[in-house]
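FORM 12-B: Structure-to-Sequence Request
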C-alpha cells in the first residue's frame, strides 16, 4: 500500500497533497463546491441508462449535493473524500445522522443509500470499494494537476474498469489562473481515455458569464464540457 500518495506533486509552486486539501477545507476556501445539484448531471445522467438500485461511485466527492440527487434517483451512492471536514459537513448540512465504522485505513460514514469513505482515494482498493455500476466525476479530474491525472485515471480504471462514466471538465487559459480547479483540454481527455472507444462529448459551453470568481482571475473563457463513456 502506498503512503502519502499526493505529497510529491505540485503546480504553480503549490504542493497538491493531503495537507493542501485539509487547509482548503479548514479555511473554507471551497469555491469548487457547487451549492446546488449540477444541472449537467440532471440533464445527462439518464444517458447512462442505469437501473434503479445501481451503485454509483463519486471519487473526491467533497460535500457535493449531487450525491443526494443520485440517491433520490434510486441509486446506492458511495463517495471517497480525504477531508473529515467535508464528510462531516455533508451529513450535518443535510441533517443526516450517519453510522460510523472503520475499515482498514478508511472511516466509513453511512446513512440509507449513501456511504462516504473518509480517506485517500489512491489508497482505496477494489475490495474496499466493491462493485459499482457507474462513476460520476464532476470535480475529481479537474482537482488534480497534469502529472497526477494519468495516475488518477489508472487507479480509477483499476477500481472499476468497465463501468460507464459521466465526466465534467473545465478548460481555460492557465496562464491567467493556475487552479485548482485545473484546466483539462479536450485533447487530454481523449488521450487519458484513449482506451474508451465509446467516449462522447455530450455538451460544451462557455460558462464564464455565470462564474464571477473566474472572471476576476482575468479569464476570457471558461469551457465546461460533459463527457460520457460507455461500459
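FORM 12-B RESPONSE
SEQUENCE OUT:
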Amino acid at each position: 500500500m502506498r503512503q502519502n500518495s499526493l505529497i510529491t506533486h505540485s503546480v504553480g509552486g503549490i504542493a497538491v497533497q493531503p495537507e493542501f486539501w485539509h487547509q482548503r477545507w479548514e479555511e473554507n476556501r471551497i469555491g469548487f463546491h457547487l451549492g446546488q445539484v449540477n444541472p449537467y448531471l440532471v440533464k445527462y445522467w439518464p444517458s447512462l441508462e442505469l437501473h434503479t438500485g445501481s451503485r454509483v461511485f463519486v471519487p473526491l466527492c467533497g460535500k457535493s449535493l449531487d450525491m443526494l440527487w443520485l440517491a433520490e434517483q434510486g441509486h446506492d451512492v458511495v463517495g471517497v473524500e480525504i477531508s473529515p471536514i467535508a464528510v462531516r459537513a455533508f451529513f450535518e448540512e443535510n441533517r443526516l445522522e450517519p453510522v460510523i465504522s472503520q475499515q482498514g485505513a478508511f472511516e466509513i460514514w453511512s446513512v440509507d443509500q449513501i456511504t462516504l469513505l473518509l480517506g485517500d482515494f489512491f489508497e482505496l482498493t477494489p475490495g474496499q470499494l466493491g462493485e459499482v455500476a457507474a462513476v460520476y466525476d464532476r470535480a475529481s479530474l479537474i482537482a488534480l494537476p497534469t502529472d497526477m491525472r494519468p495516475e488518477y485515471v489508472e487507479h480509477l480504471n483499476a477500481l472499476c474498469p468497465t463501468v460507464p462514466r459521466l465526466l465534467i471538465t473545465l478548460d481555460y487559459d492557465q496562464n491567467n489562473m493556475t487552479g485548482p480547479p485545473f484546466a483539462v483540454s479536450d485533447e487530454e481527455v481523449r488521450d487519458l481515455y484513449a482506451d474508451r472507444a465509446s467516449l462522447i462529448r455530450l455538451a460544451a459551453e462557455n460558462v464564464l458569464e455565470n462564474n464571477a470568481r473566474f472572471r476576476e482571475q482575468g479569464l476570457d473563457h471558461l469551457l465546461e464540457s460533459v463527457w460520457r463513456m460507455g461500459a
